[in-house]
Predict the 3D structure of the following.
Amino acid sequence: MTRIAGMASNRGRNLMHIADIAPGGAEFAVILTNDADAPVVEKAEKRGIPTEVVEREDGESRQAHEARINDALADYEFELVCLDGYMRILTGEFLDAQPTTLNVHPSLLPAFPGMDAWGDALDSGVSVSGCTVHIVTDATDDEGEVVESEVDGGPVVTQEPIPVYEGDDEDSLAERILYQGEFAAYPRAVRWFAEGNVDVNLDAGEVTVASDTAEQLPQRHVETADRAAELRYGENPHQDAAVYVDNTCEEASIVGAPQLNEGAKGMSYNNYNDTDAALGIVKEFDDPACAVIKHTNPAGCATADTLAEAYERALSTDAKSAFGGIVALNRVCDVDTAEQVIDSFKEVVVAPGYTDDALDVLTEKKNLRVLDVGEFGEGYEPLTQKDLVGGRLIQQRDDQKLSAEDLEVVTEREPTDEQIDSMLFAWQTIKHVKSNAILFASGTETVGVGAGQVSRVDAVEIATMKAERDAEGKSAEGAVMASDAFFPFPDGIEKAAEAGIEAVIQPGGSVNDEDVIEAADEHDIAMVMTGQRCFRHD
């Protein structure tokens, strides 16, 4: 456990914030102030933190004052010193005697050092300011006089950018930097020290953070985006919303994609969300592919020799649910495909281009948004993320793409080559179905989809119901089944057998795998295991 000596001259809000959240398990051994009336004393005492008051006497030198501070701290054990609005420049008398000393400064050093960083930032007209946590170094000469050029000049540990908005004054900017910047950066720095992730080399003027060179998941994730458009509303009419664009993204994206029928309504929050999901599916396939999406789940997906055939097969999986849905294509949309798309109500169609004839057909529908994302190209975004209250989840993208060699046959019955092809198609598609997910496929087209269930056997039953009730010219009889995670019990296999499923692809890994395999053998079902699952929870 890392123990801290805090030093403040006023409220010590950063110190209290660190005390309250204990980053990396760090805790305060003592808080010292040079002002007996400083509010930080009462705040620390309420938290059970010992306090010391060492005021500077009239005529007392910096070094003499700091010698008394050292004496006051001598009875406490600590490994780190944290300053917070400590209104004295420290000399080597203190810094040489104590462990690493940190300070937080309200600007992105080396810009705007000194006492009025907020005003200097506003006067300069910058659009971004922020804060810097840095190592405190001696900024005095041999006589103890301050060398202004060396103030706030120690090596940087971490920084946090904060936007400067039109109409900001010093108070509004200072408050934003404190609560959005310092309250993020200072605990981060303390946590790094507490976890032993920081190497300080004062001779070289460098601070190195271990594991902060990872290409995908570094110690700190920083990003920025520009507002591309305000939306009519969010998921529901009472919610405001906007879409932001990352102009560094090289992957084909719906954000900023031109809407070719200018008279149609603009894209809504839900349109963006659903269309992004639809585009993600068709990017999986090399052959002509179509996905029809409703509420981010595929109502149907298919590949075929032509785009029009792929659309017809995808739509026929569940044409009823496709009403008001999203159509994604992975080829330039031709007129044959366009004429099918407008046969029923769709919200959006997205493709890497359109022929002139196709565009003429599609724009006949007044409120069908027609998006052109351009060629898919080689760009690839390696991470996905989800905002949480108070944080964010970031993970590597699920880019698995299996081949026949990756599949382990675990049943007495061997799958045919055709079934293997169908299972591989089903696996690439089920990656995009909300878990718990079950997907039936025949050839390279979906037959029934059971999405987002809390019970896997329920997902099997829903996929069966969709195949038998809503699919046009399709049946679960003779189809293959994909499951995004293992079957915990044989009941899912038994339900699949009742539906007529003849082959299953699933991850395996359940404690009941033997029972599940036995059930497949009893029903003469071929089963392969992938050894990896493909959950999609959002």
Notes: The chain has a mean pLDDT of 94. The radius of gyration is 31 Å. The longest strand covers residues 128-135. Residues 274 and 296 are 5 Å apart (CA to CA).
